Amino acid sequence: MSLGLALALLAMTVLAMALLLGPLIWRRRATASRDSYNLAVYRDQLTEIERDIARGVLDPGDAEVAKAEIGRRILALTPAEAPAAKSRSPLALATIAVILVPIAAWSLYFDLGSPGLPDDPHAAADAAPRLDLAAALKQLEAHLAQHPDDLKGWLLLARTDRDLRHYAESAEAYRHAAELSGGNPEIAGNWGEAQVLAAGGAVTPEAAAAFKTALADPDSAPRSRFYLALADFQAGDIQKALQEWVDIEADSPADATWLPVLRQHIAEAAAKLGVDPATLKTSAGAPRKAEN
Question: How far is CA 232 from CA 226, 245, 288, in A?
Fold first, then answer.
C-alpha cells in the first residue's frame, strides 16, 4: 500500500467516525421519541401475537418465543429515568463501539496484512472488495483468538452477534466477557439474557446463576428479577413467579417501559391460577398499582 493511499484511507476513517459520532452527540434528544415509537410498535406486535393465538394460526410455543424476544427489545429501550451522564449509557457504549471498530480494523490490518508490499498491478482491473459485517466479525474473532483477554473486543462481538440474532454465539462471547470482568453484574445480566435467547426463551440453570449475579446492578436488577421469576414459572411454581412479578411492578417507576410486558405476564400467571389480577397484593400487603 502506498503512503498516499494509506493517508487517504486514514482520512476517510476519521471522516466516517465524525459522521457517526456527530449524530450520536447532537441528536440524543431524539432517543426518547424513538423509544416511544418503538414501544408502541412492540405493543402492537404483542397484540398481534395474541390475535394469532386466538385465531389458531400461531403455535403457543412459538408465541412464547416471539413474546420473549419482544420483551427483550422493550427491556433494552432507554429508561426515562437513566442519568444521561452515566458511563454505561447507550451513547457511551455506541461511542466506544464506533471508535473501537476502525481502531481494531487498522490494528488487524497492520498485524495480518502487508502494508509494506507494493500495490498489485492487477488491482486496478478488479473491483475493490467491500468489507461487509461478516468479514469484520471474522477479523474480530481472529483478533480475539490472538488476544483472548480483550474484554472490550468480547463485548463488541457479543453485542453484534446478539443484534444479528446469533444468540448462541452471543452467549458464548458474553461468557468470555463475564469471566474476564471478574463477575461484573451488568455483563452477567447480558450473558444471562443471551443464554435465554439462545435457549428459545427457556431460563436455564446457568442463565439463572448469571441473573443472580446481575442482581447487584441496580439499573438492570428489574430485568434479572423478571427472568428469575420466569424460571420459577417455567419450573411450575406459578404462585412464586406471580408474586415476584407483582413486587417488581410495585418497585418500578410509573413510566417504566417494561411495565406492559410485565403486566401481561402477571395476567397470564393469574389466569393459570384462576385469580383476579385486580385482587393481587405485594409481599408487603400493599394493593397493586393502578394500570394506566
Answer: 10, 11, 21
